[in-house]
Every structure is written in structure tokens, then in C-alpha cells.
Amino acid sequence: MRCARLVIAFCSVWMLSGSIHAQVLTPKVVPLEVTIDREPVDYSDPFYRANISTGTIKCSLLVPQGFRLKGDPSLGKLILSNLGGDSSVSFGLLGPLPEGSSELSAEYYRAVVAKQYPNAKILKEFTKLVSGRMGPGFDIQWKATEELYQNKRIVFIPSGAGVLEFTVTGGNRDFSVAQGNLDSVMGSFCYCTSGKLKIRYLSNAGS
After folding, report:
1. What long-range pairs does 74-82 form, CB within 8 A, spacing at least 24?
2. Which of 27, 64, 69, 139 is the most buried if burial means most Cβ atoms within 10 Å?
């Protein structure tokens, strides 16, 4: 009888896991319009800001120093790449939050990551705070070549603008630096769903 109960319990967990994976959808692509503007402050190395819009939604974030716009944001992702081409930061809007929910399920987005990166291994799970909201994050790794591993940090954040996705990619050696770049991007991020976006520029950050 005990064995039968264990089998039933195992099957129930397996069916639940299978149900979650079956319900995972490919995130929607929300085309973005992007302009890159210099921060209104004098530094020997200038800072730049990416200003993003789609419909009535406006967003803004600081570009890590030494990074440049790459790719076409109208395809749904803002991608910033460093000059060496071995690290990139991205931002995207994945459409509205799940109906009736104001938070994001770590279990669901774990399945999203597993579907998008089937050859990667999840190394770490955590939560991150962006614009006053907490969301699930994942560090993953995959083998790019026989001797090269790639690492990626992916963070999903609920917001009034929908589900926000932030990522950074880099190699093993400098991945901690890449993570720091993503933290600065997420820390500078702001958005509004209508009206004028209020940006806290570096020049008045201490006021």
C-alpha cells in the first residue's frame, strides 16, 4: 500500500510538472523604438542613456560604459554589446502580466528559460528588485565550443508596463563584471505607461 501511495504521489508531481511545461508559451515580441542620448553631465568618459518607447509606454536605462547599440530594437529586443563583442546586455517587454496575477511564478519562468535554452544548465536561482518590484532570476551556462562556456543571467520583473526581461551574457572569466553591468542597468531603469517619463539623471542623482 505504501508503494502504491508513493507511485501515485510521484505521478501527481510528474503530471503537474508536465502541465506547467505544456502551458509555457513563447514570450510575445513587442517592437521597440530606441534613441541613445548623452547624459547631461560632464565626465571625462561620457555616459549615455537608452530611451525606449512602444505605444504609450516609455522606458529609460543607462548604457554601461563601453557598450553600443546592436541589432534592430523593432524586432523586440534592445541589445547593447561591448566593444570586444564578448558581452551583451538586453532588455525586452514580454507583454502583459498573467491574467489575475500581480507577481511572477518562479516555476513558470524556470520552464520558460528551459524552453528557450534547451542546452543550458541552470546554475542559480534568485530574486531581483527593479523599480520597486521583485521578480525571479536565473543564471544559466552552456558549452559554446569544446573549450568555451557561455553564461547568461536572465531576470523577469512584473510591472505596470507588463513583464520586463533583462539579460546579460558573458564568458566565465568576466561574468561577475557582466553581472555588475546588468545591476547598473536595472538600477537606472524607469518607466511610465502614459504621460511624460520622469528620468533621474546622473547630474541630479544626489539631490
Report:
1. 74/31, 74/32, 74/33, 75/29, 75/31, 76/29, 76/30, 76/31, 76/32, 77/32, 78/32, 78/34, 78/50, 78/52, 80/50
2. 64
Any idea what DSSP says for residue 90? E
Q: What value does the mean pLDDT of the chain take?
A: 87
Greatest Cα pair distance in the chain? 75
Domain edges within the chain: 28-201
Using alpha carbons, select from 203, 200, 179 the residue that is nearest to residue 191.
Answer: 200
How far apart, in whole angstroms, are the C-alpha atoms of residue 87 and residue 178? 7
Distance CA 36, CA 62 (A): 9
151 contact partners, CB below 8 Å, separation of at least 6: 123, 139, 140, 141, 169, 170, 171, 172, 175, 178
**Lowest mean pLDDT across 3-7, 30-34, 72-76, 155-159:** 3-7
User: What residue has cell string 553600443?
Assistant: 68
Pick the CATH number of 28-201 from 3.20.110.10, 3.40.50.300, 3.40.50.150, 3.40.1000.10: 3.40.1000.10
Give the number of other Cβ atoms within 10 Å of residue 24's Cβ: 16
Q: Say what the pLDDT of residue 141 is.
A: 97
